[in-house]
Design goal:
Blueprint (H helix, E strand, L loop, with lengths): L4 E2 L8 H17 L15 H6 L1 H4 L3 E14 L2 E8 L2 E8 L26 E10 L5 E12 L15 H6 L1 H7 L1 H23 L3 E2 L5 E2 L11 E4 L4 E5 L5 H9 L4 E9 L11 E10 L3 H20 L3 E4 L2 E4 L5 E4 H9 L8 H10 L10 H13 L6 E4 L11 E2 L2 E5 L1 E6 L2 E8 L4 H16 L10 H8 L5 E7 L1 H6 L18
Parallel strand pairs: 4-6, 7-11, 15-16
Antiparallel strand pairs: 1-2, 2-3, 2-5, 3-4, 5-6, 8-10, 9-10, 11-12, 12-21, 13-14, 16-19, 17-18, 19-20, 20-21
């Protein structure tokens, strides 16, 4: 049995002492004429490239670079595990094979290996080989330091246990936990797949204002900030340019989408954040039924590319998305589950039912808000995947009414694992109807409903010039979080936190 000595033998010292030891090593390197923070690297191959192409690279010289994850010494042998974004590679060091210390080339040599620590970034030139135990390795001839770390990393085994500490020091969590890095690689794949899908379907990517005079396109409470140059208060957008993209439909564009950040000054939960990514598309001459077909195709395409499967376990739900998605009627679902017909019920009837269900509501809540609370109680029981349809007009101020029943609208929401994972509808393009709905929403807002929509007079003016039939749809990063089976906050690479005291 080999006796391996771990070269970093100071892990139990207090942090200030550990930092001081590393600073002393830093100063020794400088006295030797070694630059501990050079700007360049001559890396020729990543860890993954070496593992994937071992037969081609065996006995060839390469230059590798990365962060030291472990340092182990056994007599004349030293083992260093290097990590980079796509994997790890072992340095299998025979001390006698290392070229001597050289200031000109910045090679540390065998004599100065003791100045290295776990967490340092180094570069090494050597021969691709395998150890006697069959581990793909690089046998170094030179080692050059690229970055001297002053603060020690926590061990990969113990890591950062406190969730807030993980979020606050995400860079550490990423450095020691490949699964966290993999999560954000998947998230990047998720959004790039959506962008690719939309472009392949002939949609034009656009950019619309983030700062608005009137926050519109959703029921949400906006953030307010001050624009110094214009000396006005403005709102951070609460939708991905919904009313702006529909103005583009007025202007002659027929298929647009936008992917970016939006902001809602609301509560934090497993499914909700205030600052998050969303994609919305708008498609002229298409109705909500055509939108449902496109969205189902998009979800199947994107989720398989991202996760490599159609089958998921999300909370208590087992979901297979590789099937034809059905529909669920909004009013009928509430009637079946809760025994109340919202098409006929009064505001007091709905308040009574909510009290029975022990669901809190505001006394001045509108009928639409009470309907929404009842639906949310039902939603938790729905596994899906399916489309929720038949929404009452009171909960859909921007949607076109059904032809045979104007009290309900041409809207669809994706329901999977008890959550709403996408929202679309045939857009309202009757300017008179739109103006009346905006006025109703503004009255609710003036009465204290902070999430009611504002009266956007310019948008009504745009509709008066004429907008063709349009289907719109929006999807947020909640979808990725759900299928990753994590909270949406875990899936934000640097979530907002209160300042450290």
């Amino acid at each position: 049995m080999l006796k391996i000595v771990v070269m970093d033998n100071t892990p139990n010292l207090p942090l200030d002492q550990l930092r001081q030891i590393r600073i002393e090593k830093l100063n020794k390197l400088k006295k030797l004429g070694i630059n501990p923070f050079p700007a360049d690297s001559k890396r020729s191959n990543s860890a993954k490239e070496i593992h994937d192409n071992f037969k081609k690279l065996e006995n060839k010289k390469v230059v590798v670079a990365g962060r030291i994850l472990s340092l182990r010494e056994h007599g004349e042998l030293v083992f260093i595990d290097l990590s980079n974004q796509d994997g790890e590679i072992q340095l299998y060091i025979h001390k006698s094979n290392l070229k001597p210390f050289n200031v000109k080339t910045q090679n540390l040599g065998e004599a100065n290996l003791n100045l290295l620590d776990i967490g340092d970034f180094i570069e090494s030139e050597g021969i691709v080989t395998k150890t006697q135990r069959g581990v793909v390795s690089v046998a170094p001839e030179t080692i050059r330091i690229l970055t001297k770390s002053i603060r020690p990393l926590p061990s990969s085994h113990f890591g950062l246990k406190d969730e807030e500490e993980k979020f606050r020091q995400r860079y550490v969590d990423l450095a020691i936990n490949p699964k966290v890095r993999e999560l954000f690689v998947k998230k990047s794949t998720f959004w790039s797949s959506i962008r690719q899908f939309m472009l392949e379907k002939g949609f034009l990517e656009v950019e619309t204002p983030v700062l608005e005079n009137t926050a519109g396109g959703a029921d949400a409470n906006p953030f307010i900030t001050h624009h110094n140059a214009l000396d006005i208060d403005v709102y951070l957008r609460i939708s991905m340019g919904e009313l702006w993209q529909k103005r583009l439909m007025v202007g002659g564009f027929e298929k647009t989408f936008e992917l970016g950040r939006q902001f809602r000054n609301e509560g934090i939960s497993r499914e909700h954040l205030q600052d998050y990514t969303q994609m919305e598309f708008y498609w002229a001459y298409a109705d909500y039924k055509q939108g449902m077909d496109l969205v189902e195709e998009m979800y199947k395409n994107v989720l398989y590319k991202t996760f490599g499967t159609y089958d998921f376990e999300i909370g208590n739900h087992k979901v297979s998305i590789d099937q034809k998605w059905g529909t669920l009627d909004y009013t009928q679902a509430i009637l079946d589950k809760l025994g109340i017909d919202i098409a006929k019920a009064s505001i007091e009837d709905m308040k009574k039912k909510l009290r029975e269900l022990k669901v809190r509501y505001e006394e001045n809540a509108t009928k639409g808000r009470l309907m929404d609370l009842l639906w949310k109680k039902v939603r938790k029981t729905v596994t899906g995947p399916l489309f929720l349809v038949g929404h009452p007009v009171q909960v859909s101020p921007l949607a076109k009414p059904l032809t045979n029943n104007p009290n309900f609208v041409q809207r669809y929401q994706i329901i999977i694992a008890g959550s709403e994972l996408g929202n679309g509808y045939s857009e309202l393009n009757d300017p008179i109807d739109q103006e009346n709905r905006f006025k109703e929403q503004q009255q609710a807002r003036d009465a204290g409903d902070e999430e009611a929509q504002m009266n956007d007079k310019d948008f009504v003016r745009a509709l008066e010039y004429g907008m063709p039939p349009v289907n719109g749809f929006g999807v947020s990063e909640r979808v990725f979080a759900f299928f990753a089976n994590k909270s949406v906050r875990e899936c934000v690479i640097f979530p907002l936190l209160r300042p450290e005291e």
